[in-house]
Amino acid sequence: MLTVVAGSLGAGKTRWIWEQMTAQKGSEPLLYINPLTVGVDAYRLLLDVPHLQVETDLSKALPVTESGAVTESGAVAESGAIYLELGHHLSLDLPLLARVPHHRVAVISADCPTRSDWEQWAEEVVISNVKSPDASPDITDAETDLWQASLQGQVLDPASLHTFWQELVQGAYGQMIRTKAVFELADGQAIYVDHLPQQETTYQDLPLPKWLNGRPQRFSGIEMMGQALDKAAIAATLQDCCLTDATLASHQAALQQSQVYSPQETA
Question: Where are the domains of the chain?
């Protein structure tokens, strides 16, 4: 069964999908589709649902015949439940969805100014208690910018990252509406960072072993939505936060000497 999940920005769409997936008993095949993203949400889901399949190309995940029937090929053929999360930047009128049976779920904030529109679109409505960025007086109806980047293999200096993040949320690079990221830090820890306007940034240590031997060979990346974003400046400043090979090697050597170190920690 295909469930299409959409809704207001930051209302908790991925959280709702996570609740549905983790509530299922056993290891029923699951497919998560999140088109045109680096994959921050998909990676966080994979940490709790290791048997999850992930696809970012909707046409590959839901191949259909000319008659509109889902074919028995691709990831969908092996999945018992399929969740398609439509980001705030994507249209609800995807032509492919008109040809595939699906259940529409809207996850929206109680104060969302377009709540009635979502309720008309959805077959099921989930009201969250998260304050909607769309309801903020600072957010206009101007077209939003989307900026994202893969950071795999990059390790960031925590002090530099903190300075960059404070500049970002205070508007130094344009009006930031929503940012979420997975960063690898110099101490080997991977963290998840999430920010919405008028809220404190959330930092969460991910349940992963510390990577203390070379550049991390696991996911990290950032996804950002805003208005009038200076994307070139964001990319350059973030790059300045990343450690060089020599600095990273020095950090890791010091960490290995200061604690009991096992090569299995990088598995």
Answer: 2-135, 145-260
Q: pLDDT, tens digit, for every residue of 185-205?
A: 999 999 999 998 778 899 999
> Is 24 within 8 Å of 81 (Cβ atoms)?
yes
Dist CA 258 CA 194 (whole Å): 31
For domain 2-135, give the fold: Rossmann fold (3.40.50)
Give yes or no for a contact between 226 and 176, defined as CB atoms under 8 angstroms apart. yes
What is the Cα–Cα distance from 264 to 267, expressed in whole angstroms?
5
Distance (Å) of CA 200 to CA 10, 96, 166, 194: 13, 38, 11, 9
Cβ proximity of 63 and 73 under 8 Å: yes
CA distance 40 to 221: 6
Q: What is the pTM of this model?
A: 0.86
DSSP state of 137: T
Q: Which of 190, 181, 256, 257 is nearest to 221 (CA)?
A: 181
pLDDT tens digits along 217-250: 999 999 999 999 999 999 999 999 999 999 999 9
Contact 55, 85 (CB under 8 A): no
Give the separation between CA 148 and CA 35, rounded to whole angstroms: 13
Nearest to 145 by CA among 89, 86, 195: 89
How many residues would you count in the chain?
Answer: 267
pLDDT at 76: 52
> Confidence class of residue 136 from pLDDT cuts 50, 70 and 90?
low
CATH architecture for segment(s) 145-260:
2-Layer Sandwich (3.30)
- Residue 57 in contact with residue 34, Cβ under 8 Å? no
Between CA 148 and CA 49 the distance in angstroms is 24
